[in-house]
Specification:
This is SH3b domain-containing protein. Keywords: Signal. It comes from Aerosakkonema funiforme FACHB-1375. By secondary structure, the chain is an alpha+beta fold. The protein is built from two helices and six strands. The chain has a six-stranded antiparallel beta barrel with strand order 1-2-3-6-5-4. A hairpin with a 5-residue loop joins strand 5 and strand 6. The longest helix is centred in the first third of the chain and has 19 residues. It is globular, with a radius of gyration of 23 Å. It starts with a helix and ends with a strand.
């Protein structure tokens, strides 16, 4: 009795998990995710693009009206960073920069405020 309940429960759990898994390209091509519908994985002719990203830690050293200076925690190099929005940076804040595989700075995140913005330009000082 116990063994048949275990097998039935395992089969139900495996079926539930396997039908709820969807790849990222499938989600990107879907019109939306609706909680009242069952989502099934299907074979699609979509390419999967992997974007390698790295996170780097910096400390804010100066604040200018349109940019900030940050110092790398790893190398000690100082950079002037311009970004699109406000991140509420203050001198001494730790910021994280997301960098792509081409070493292009993509996003800056203020760890204290949780605010982030797209990086528009970076210059080594």
């Amino acid at each position: 009795m116990f063994n048949s309940k275990f097998v039935a429960t395992s089969a139900l759990l495996a079926t539930t998990i396997s039908t709820s898994l969807v790849t990222l390209p499938a989600l990107a091509n879907s019109g939306g995710i609706f909680p009242d519908r069952t989502t099934e994985a299907s074979q699609q002719n979509t390419s999967t693009v992997l974007i390698a990203q790295t996170r780097r830690a910096f400390t804010v050293t100066k604040i200018w009206p349109s940019s900030i200076y940050v110092k790398s925690s790893a190398t000690g190099n100082v950079y002037e960073v311009y970004y699109a929005g406000r991140i509420g940076a203050e001198v001494g804040d730790t910021v994280t920069v997301i960098v792509n595989s081409d070493d292009k700075w993509i996003t800056i995140i203020n760890e204290r405020t949780g605010q982030s913005s797209a990086v528009t330009s970076v210059n080594r000082v």
